[in-house]
Design brief:
This protein is an alpha+beta fold and 256 residues long. The chain has 4 helices and 15 strands.
């Protein structure tokens, strides 16, 4: 029977299970995620080589005029040394890891999750998934508030594959798309797209595109490939946030 149980465990039947429990489920990029991974022994003794926490999101890629979503690993964290889990035993392993500064905000269609997996030799690796809410950092929050004050509303947030000249650690950027809801720019501007990229401890690169006509999904990054003259790149520090509304006003007025 013992050999039979081991054979079943190799294909995942009666094997060890894993469950990650987060202390919180709301964070900002750069903050620490804390929690406990609980490993539940199955019907047989099993050696756990490693426990990995992998942080994922998705972004939109385009190939042959077709768009599709691609999962991407933002970071990986190993939290243990090898150990053996006995039948019906429970082990609790605390963990702490830091969200990368370039973790996208979970607004619009963007999702971020932690995948926890056990690395078991010669067996199916059990896994667990926990979604987390990533709140906007100070610069993103300030940009959204400034745009709302200028008479725009946030219409869409999407992670899209970036041109090579815009890539940093990751192959995508998160785009915030705004449309006029009234005010000075109604009838003059169809949409404005903004990308916020960390460039230091308290510094950010902002890319702003003012569109006089709606080009639809993907227009912003498409025009970036052509080095469109209406693409504006500004460097803004957190100290300049009180002037952010004026900075955006000058750019929008120039191209509207």
């Amino acid at each position: 029977m013992a050999l039979f149980n081991k054979a079943l465990a190799r294909i995942g039947i009666g094997a060890a299970r894993v469950d990650a429990k987060l202390v919180n489920d709301e964070f900002r990029a750069g903050e620490k995620i804390e929690g406990i991974v609980e490993v539940y022994g199955g019907n047989v003794e099993q050696k756990i080589d490693s426990i990995y926490l992998r942080l994922f999101t998705t972004y939109v890629k385009e190939r042959d005029d077709k768009k599709y979503k691609q999962d991407i690993e933002l970071n990986t964290f190993k939290i243990n040394d090898p150990f053996t889990i006995q039948p019906s035993e429970t082990k609790s392993i605390p963990f702490t890891f830091q969200l990368p500064d370039d973790t996208p905000v979970t607004l619009g269609r963007t999702r971020v999750w932690v995948a926890t997996s056990l690395d078991i030799k010669d067996a199916v690796d059990p896994s667990d998934i926990d979604h987390v809410k990533v709140l906007p950092n100070l610069m993103v929050t300030s940009a959204i508030e400034a745009m709302e004050q200028l008479g725009f509303r946030l219409r869409q947030v999407e992670c899209e594959e970036a041109p090579r000249r815009m890539r940093k650690r990751l192959p995508f950027v998160q785009e915030f798309e705004f449309v006029p809801s009234g005010g000075l720019y109604a009838g003059k501007v169809d949409e404005i797209e903004i990308i916020v990229q960390p460039s230091g401890l308290h510094d950010y690169d902002l890319f702003i595109e003012v569109d006089r006509r709606a080009r639809g999904f993907g227009g912003f990054l498409s025009e970036m490939l052509d080095a469109d003259e209406s693409l504006v790149h500004v460097h803004v520090s957190e100290k300049e946030i009180p002037q952010l509304k004026n900075i955006l006003t000058n750019i929008i007025s120039r191209y509207s």
